[in-house]
Amino acid sequence: MLPYKSLTEPFEPNAYEKRWLELERKVAEKGFTWATLYENYEDNQYMSDSLLVVPASLAREVENASRAVNDIFAKAYQEAMKDRSVIHKTGISVFLWDLLLAENRTAFSYFCRYDFIASANGLKVIEGNTDTPVGLVEAAVAQQVLCEEHHSTNPNEKMAGNIKNAWNQIIKDYQIGSTDTLYFTCADWHDEDKQTVQYLMSLYPQQAKYIPLADIVVEEEDVRTPEGERIDFLYRLYPLEFFLEEKSATGELIGERFIVHVLNEKVKIINPPSALFMQSKAILALITEKKEQWFTRQEQAVIDKYFLPTYETAHGLDSYVKKPVLGREGGGIQIVSGGTVLDEDVDYYQDQPVVFQQYFPMPDQTVDTWDGPYTGKLLIGSHVINGEPSGLFFRVGEHITGNLSMFVAYTTK
């Protein structure tokens, strides 16, 4: 368990609530507006005001592991494009296959987050969020406010600069001219996604406009705004596979038409389609299955060190995590340890193919909450932006790290 700093010791409910509400106001002013989440008919605390004290050696190890893991993902993508028959294992709709197998002239993803478990038994990556990763505003904005409150150094200070570098690389790779507009979109009702998009847009150096997802007009020939402006470049914080279900204002399914426009490069999207390909957790099983075929001995050593064996079946494992290949936010996961189910979610993604990953227990971590100290399981998210490790994102929750797992800031010593 990592040590942590508390702003209110000993815990006194009224004093804690007053101080926490003031902190919530401060982070909201900076653009982090979901410190409280309303779910299950009640307000839930999402941000802890504690500050984890992380050994600098561990932070460096996660950074080095993040770079190595990203390189393995990039190599896996290159090899998968040579052996395109593996696409049927990804669980991605056949309507997207032509798009995913089209020539990609950019990085497989510019904005990624890899989730790690760090314990006395080592450091392991459990999945890659390569398509639409969030946690950026927490790691870049709320992290800074919390470190200032604790009078501590913010180790994520390079994050904004790395995002700017990524945009410059995207401008070059996508050949976005100085007079071109990059449109930013997400589901307008989703506060977290909208504020994340606004933050990323604030760091973009050229012309940019926000357009709610529901306002995008998919015509026969191209994609436009309601005012008739053509959308040539689109950053979308919205899963690419969800576009297939999108409808027009008249109820017409327009997702396939949108995908065809992307395939024909009538509109160029960021992250690119390859990011969805690598988002599938089937990639983890492919890395295990193709370890000796796809990877050099040095790369195999990285896989042995940081990856957990993952299979298409339980493969005789007594302890495993069963994951839907395109599940998100912990949906559809089952955790089995020693033949006993520790936790499971049966509400989402039950119709998807699954993979079975060797179970690697998360360490316990205590943080302050509205109800006093809470001990949960610690997961480390590591943002990799344009191939560069760019900042950590810590969450404390239950065995399954879901939407309500609590964000907690960190510093190093």
UniProtKB/TrEMBL annotation:
A Pfam family recorded for this sequence: GSP_synth
GO molecular function: ATP binding; ligase activity; metal ion binding
EC number: 6.3.1.-
InterPro entries: GSPS_pre-ATP-grasp-like_dom, PreATP-grasp_dom_sf
Residue span, Glutathionylspermidine synthase pre-ATP-grasp-like domain: 24-409
Family annotation (Gene3D superfamilies): 3.30.1490.330
Lineage: superkingdom: Bacteria
Keywords: ATP-binding, Ligase, Magnesium, Metal-binding, Nucleotide-binding
Descriptive protein name: Putative acid--amine ligase YjfC
Gene: yjfC
